Amino acid sequence: MRNAKLVGAIGVPLLVTALVSGQTVRSAGGVDGAAIQGTLDLFRADLGVLNPNQPGSFGSGRREINWDGVPDTFSAPNSFPANFFNVNSPRGTVFSTPGTSLMLNADSSNPTATPNDFGNINPVYQEQFAPFSGQRMFTAIDSNVTDVHFFVPGSTDAAVVRGFGVVFSDVDLADSTRVQFFDAGDNEIFNQLVLPGGTAEGFSFLGASFATSVVARVRITSGNGTLGAAISEDPAGLLDLVVMDDFVYGEPVLIPGPGVVALCGVAGVLTIRRRRR
């Protein structure tokens, strides 16, 4: 591990694979939002000022996603469009999963009276998951893996970011939830487990940042199982179902130089050509 500064909110050893120098890790877990708020705010400060949701790159600062501005038509029981935060609300992210789709939970005012907190999938989830901010949360369907790909906001130009962080709801096990970073050559440059929240409806946060923009893709493994109508956590505590809330990440900037980036999307394969400079 090279020049990695690790900051944990509770006294649990933080195991991290850091392959790029100048790295800062922010990690926290606890029974309520207050337990992770300070660590999240430090991570925001690491990345810089919050930029508006506009096309193009501001070159520095950060972007955020909290899901609550997404309309009901793109929330449960409907699937969530993988490119919503690059097309509808340009923030430079496109998601993919080995599963069948992506989903946001319904809010309390949705017109179809769909149960919130993913209760449309299984009613027991309403007592298990709680949102950190607003009402909406995010999950992959039929998989516990989500990939986040970065673009110059509003474009098909592949981009890199300086860091990425995510809030999780209901991490119970110390070895179930993981965040990995990959560079533009698809080499792993960061790999760390997420601290547990300590209780049902608890929260966890993990974020890492670098001195320069080097992160082209993030893989999030949320728990060790998938949501389903007949799937609930077992009394033995071996199954850990986890969903996500806020995403915080560095401003996407163009990857320099020519090349082709092939991305596996939800509905197929996206081939994105980088701009020649």
Descriptive overview:
The protein has 277 residues and is mainly β. It has one domain (4-273). Helices cover 5% and strands 32% of the residues. The chain contains one helix and 18 strands. It has one helix spanning 34-47, and strands at 4-8, 16-18, 23-30, 62-65, 93-96, 101-104, 138-141, 145-150, 159-160, 163-169, 178-182, 188-193, 203-209, 217-221, 243-250, 253-254, 260-264, 269-273. The strands form five sheets. Strands 1-3-13-10-15-4 form a six-stranded mixed β-sheet, covered by helices on one side. The relative contact order is 0.22.
Please describe the structure with a list of short key phrases separated by commas or semicolons.
single chain, globular, 277 residues, 5% helix, 18 strands, six-stranded antiparallel β-sheet, mainly beta
